[in-house]
Amino acid sequence: MARAVTSRRKSLNTALAWAVGLLIFFPILWTILTSFKTEAQAIASPPLFLNFDWTLENYAIVQERSDYMRFLWNSVIIAGGSTILGVIIAVPAAWAMAFVPSKRTKDILLWMLSTKMLPAVGVLYPIYLLFIRLGLLDTRGGLVVVLMLINLPIIVWMLYTYFREIPGEILEAARMDGATLKEEILYVLTPMAVPGIASTVLLNFILAWNEAFWTLNLTAVDAAPLTAFIASYSSPEGLFFAKLSAASTMAIAPILILGWFSQKQLVRGLTFGAVK
Amino acid sequence: MATQHSRSVARLMMAPAVVLLLGWMLVPLTMTLYFSFKKYLPLRGGDLGWVGFDNYVRFVSSSSFWPAVQATLVIVGGVLVITVVLGILLAMLLDQPMWGQGVVRILVIAPFFVMPTVSALVWKNMFMDPVNGLLAHLWRFFGAEPISWLSEASMTSIIMIVSWQWLPFATLILLTAIQSLDSEQLEAAEMDGAPVLKRFYHIVLPHLSRAITIVILIQTIFLLSIFAEIFVTTGGAFGTRTLTYLIFQRVLESQNVGLGSAGGVYAIILANIVAIFLMRIVGKNLDA
Which residue range or ranges hold the ABC transmembrane type-1 domain (chain B) (predicted)? Predict the structure, then answer.
């Protein structure tokens, strides 16, 4: 920097940026605050910000009424399972494309990306029908497979862009030293690729956790994850703001925390490496 | 260099991913095409035979088709304008030196991680409820009559909710792009006395053009298929029935699979038109 920034300008920037940041974050903050109020306090006029009797009763009620833990467990299994399965299938593919590129590699990558563009609603009935015929409707296994497939292109792409940054000379050196392909992958590539794989896992876990087309349309009771748990609050019933807030807070808390770690990967993963 | 052996190993390693995605694409697509040429009502007689292009004609000539197209365009267009314009301003603000930049970034990005059903329901109830919502309190505070957002201003409400969800994405990508801008060039222009607007127009905007294009294309693909936000708020009522939602209703609610499938084919064609442009940009980047 050629010029020192005046501290007055910095203060102004800071104030403005914090104001905007808090405004954008406010709906989340308000949800979290409301979850600790009683139902009467939740609709008090004028609204109460911090001066209310903090209570945990909504969390107890929500858990008791709809068995939050079961939905949470379904979300974990579906998001986790589809991510792990996707990575297992994608790592070899991305490895091959990054280190043994052929003339068709680019075409294959772009074709994979194009499958991601397929609008879900265009294939809703076929998938629905296949799920009924195969007995997969409302099963976690079925959703694991579907979410794995819709995220597989992103997983392959992200891994590919990370793997491409690993210098090929290192692999060749290992090969010269007589390493077999298996050793090469296990001892040379894996340690270097772990950070990239970790970021990929993180982002895809978040995407799968929040997916709300297939999870709403292909589940009913047994396999319903948190997206469906929240949707069950869509018909209002008396006073329910505090309970809705508690349920919402529980549904987003795990992912908000993970999300903060994945800011950087977000750009790369969602733009398919076009913006880094 | 790659030997013949390593090439065949590589092909083998790609096979599972390629085969799975090929199946995922071809099987449902073929079925959708197949159903779209049939009169198929699972609850009222099942497969009633081939009807040629009848479903395609009926889908576009139904009275709900053009309103759905309009709703889709208004939502996609509205959200794009809001997120791109605010995203640029926000990215420029966040790029300035300040205290606690990391924390502000986190605050701005957070909405992206909120699942769509949660953000839609929180906005619908705690902000847009005409009696107890925060916006109603705010309106009354200023002596105005509270609005029943989701029925009277349904499109505005949906656009607000979806923009809130996607603003972080646009901001983050534009911020990443802005950070690669050569600050010396900007400072030189500043020294030469170029006014702020001119600097923005001639230096910042051209530099961001590629990132803006990418934001627009990727968001368009996701916005064309927003579902949960409408599902839990208006359920497609009050003029918010988008093309995606219309097809969903045809297929699962009224179980007119033939008609819905024809709609699905239209949706696929539409998405592909957008996708072609995105793929060009991404593809160019691969060569670099």
Answer: 69-278
